[in-house]
Each structure stands twice: as structure tokens, then as C-alpha cells.
Amino acid sequence: TDAPYQALTIDTLPARLGSIDALTSRIGPPASWRSREVGDGNLNLVFIVDGERGSIIVKQALPYVRLVGESWPLPLKRSFFEYHALIRQEARAGKGAVPEVFHYDETQALIVMEFLTPHVILRRALIEGRMPPRIASDLGLFMARTLFRGSDFSMTARERKADLALFADNVELCDITENLVFTDPYFEAPLNRHTSPELDGMVAELRADRDLKVEAQALKHLFAARAETLLHGDLHSGSVMVTDADTRVIDPEFAFYGPIAFDVGMLLANYWMAFFAARGHEGGKPRDEMRAWLLSVITDTWNVFHAEFSRLWRTERKGMLYASSVFEDRGDPLAAEQALQRVLGDIFTDMLGFAGVEMHRRILGLAHNADFEEIAEQKLRGACEMRALKLGRHLAVNRRHIRSLSEVNELAVRLDEG
Ligand code: SR1
Ligand code: MG
């Protein structure tokens, strides 16, 4: 319709969406619809709509940051970027990698999509001590396929430049990341908070740490300037839904062209945080197996990413970067392999840095993780957070000297036991 934007409510939803055939044919007539608002993220409205024949999800952007309120306006166009990212992710990672989209309305900034059941948010599963068996493989493949196929390694220069331009306007969401991830944690920014007073000393130390601040700014520089591929842009454990048999990536509203290493680093950071938070969720039952599993998920995710990225490099390198005409066609396949190792080496190094600052911002900045927040006992929470802050500092500052994830995981274990 041409009606101006209006935020939905559970009462207005059936009348507003009930004439859309793509929805009624799926879940039945609007008279049977029952809606609940279930959004618990930082930004949007999310409704589950149950009809007589099935259920759908309706996600609508609000003109402000939900977490903060109307004092922080945020453009509705983020829904446009989310829609276009979902379409591309499905094409690149395959059907079933993301929720299916049934309807998109640009003016109303809403996307109607598949209701995933019995899926739960991965972060919730990890807090509850569950170990969804497919995540390393599914997310390693998802990242390799979306990040490789959205880049100049794979796309034609014209297509890739058109997409670069399409997503270039996601300025406000990039601005959130630029400030909340790379800058605010490292000074007394007004929206910062940390919930464990035990951290006061460490926080002051980190904010006075010149090497760390230089690295955080260097990573911000990379994030802002290296328009390498279409990123998910917010790939943490709250942006993944799982069952034991299925993994779906949701919420790509932060999508834009940035460095490949950013998505990988953010995801692995959230696993390291789940690892350190596990001690706070033991409730009398030690989570030794879970902690070891989380560390294996980190190495397995990277290994799957590495293997699939390499496979795509060898079989789908059709873009203008490292062209076959320069390497294989001239009888020098080893040069292409050498270039691949260089590219993956750089991704590895930068990924560690992005992981480091992501761990910091979730403890020192505005947007925290339930993994730590839900540890009720303050001293224990502070101890878990402190270990994550230390690992984050090591990753950000020393990333160029780190050779393997086992090296990082060994340090994580030492910190966790210390
Ligand atoms: C103001 S938005 C805070 C955070 O929520 C989103 O999920 C992103 O991670 C963002 O940084
Ligand atoms: Mg989100």
C-alpha cells in the first residue's frame, strides 16, 4: 500500500497485513490470526503471528533504537538492507541458511518471514549449556560462501560495484558499530556501562592502554575502509537460531561492504565469551565438557571456513582479483595457492583483532551479552568478564604474532583456570 509508515501493534497487524495473498495462503485468513510481540533485540519489533494453518514472523523496524528509546533516532531503511542481504545470503549460502522471506514492504520497513520452530537463539542455547552439534560446520560454510561469493574474488566487477553502492547507504548502522565496537569502550563514553565494580581497575587500565587504543583505531580503519565483501555485519550468537539438526542466520540489518575478517571475528568472540561465561552458569554442575566443546567449535569453525574458502578459491574464482588468467592459465597454479595462503593469513590475523574488540565492547560498552549479564553473583560475573577482557586485549594487541587458534585456546584455558 501507499499508506505512510506506522508501527504495527498486535491489534492492528491482522487488518494491515491480512489482505496479502502470500500470507493468507500460508497461514490462513486474518480472522484466525493471533499475534504476540516477542522482540528482545536492541532495535526492532518482532511479532509471531499464528494462523489456523501455520505461523509467520513479522519484523518491523522502529524509527529509533529500541534499547535506548526515541532519543536515538535510527532510519527505517535498515529493513531495506536486511531484506537485500537475506536474499543474497540465501543465493550464496543456499536455501535453508537464512529464514525464507515471504513478503517485504519498504515503506512500512517490514519483512515477513519463515517462523523457525523449534529453533532457539544460539546464545540462549549456550547459556543453558546445550551443544548444538552442527554450528561449527554450518556457520563455517555460511561465512565462507557468503563472504567469498559477495566479493571481487567471485562477482563480476560491475555486479560487485553495484552492490557496494546499494549497501553504501547503511551509514547509520555502520556508525553504531564504528562507535560502539571500536571507540566507546576505550574512553568514558556516556552510554558505556560495566556491571561488575570488580572491573573498575581493569577498565581504567584498558582505557589508558596506548597500544590497545592504537590497535582499536587500526581495526576501525580496516572496518571502515576495506570494502571487501558483503558482511552480515552483526554475526554474534544472538543472530543465529538453532536446533540440533538445523542452523539459520538471522538479522543481517547491519549488512554492508567491509572486511571478510569482521564476521568471522565477531562470531568467534561470542564463543570465547560463552566459554568464559560458562563458569557462571554451572549451578552445581561443572561444565567441563561444554567448555572444551566451545573451544573445539572455535577451531572447527575456522577450519571449515578455511577449507570451504580454499575450495571456492580453486573452483569459483571468477572475479577480477587474483584472476586465473594471471596464475593458472599461465601455468603457475602455485602462485594462486601462495596468494590464497596470503589472503587467508591476513583474514586470520584481522579476525583475531576484531574478536578482541568485540569481547571488550560487550563488557564495557552499551550493548552487553546475556552470557555475562545473567550471571547473578556479582563477584563471579566480574571474574568471568575479567578473563574475557584479558583475552580480548591479547587478541587485539598481539594478533600479528599469533600463529594458531590452539595457542589462543590454551591461553583462554589458562585464564579461565587462573
Ligand atoms: C544500539 S544497537 C547495539 C547493538 O545491537 C545490535 O545487535 C548490534 O550488535 C549493535 O552494536
Ligand atoms: Mg540484531
Please tell me about this protein's structure.
With 418 residues, the protein is α+β, with helices and mostly antiparallel strands. The protein has 2 domains: 13-114, Phosphorylase Kinase, domain 1; 120-417, Alpha-Beta Complex (Aminoglycoside 3'-phosphotransferase, Chain: A, domain 2), CATH 3.90.1200. It is built from 15 helices and 12 strands. It has helices spanning 13-17, 21-27, 78-93, 122-127, 135-149, 157-167, 171-180, 200-207, 210-225, 260-277, 288-316, 333-364, 370-373, 378-398, 405-417, and strands spanning 34-37, 44-50, 55-61, 64-65, 69-73, 101-105, 110-114, 120-121, 229-231, 240-242, 247-249, 256-258. The strands form 4 sheets. The protein has a 5-stranded antiparallel β-sheet with strand order 1-2-3-7-6, sandwiched between helices. A 3-stranded antiparallel β-sheet has the order 8-10-11. Strands 4-5 form a two-stranded antiparallel ribbon. A hairpin with a 3-residue loop joins strand 4 (64-65) and strand 5 (69-73). Helix 3 packs across helix 5 (135-149) and helix 5 (135-149) runs parallel beside helix 11 (288-316). The longest helix has 32 residues, at 333-364. The chain is globular. The chain starts with 12 loop residues before the first helix and ends with a helix. The mean pLDDT is 97. Magnesium ion is lined by residues 41, 234, 239, 251. Magnesium ion (MG) is lined by residues 41, 234, 239, 251.
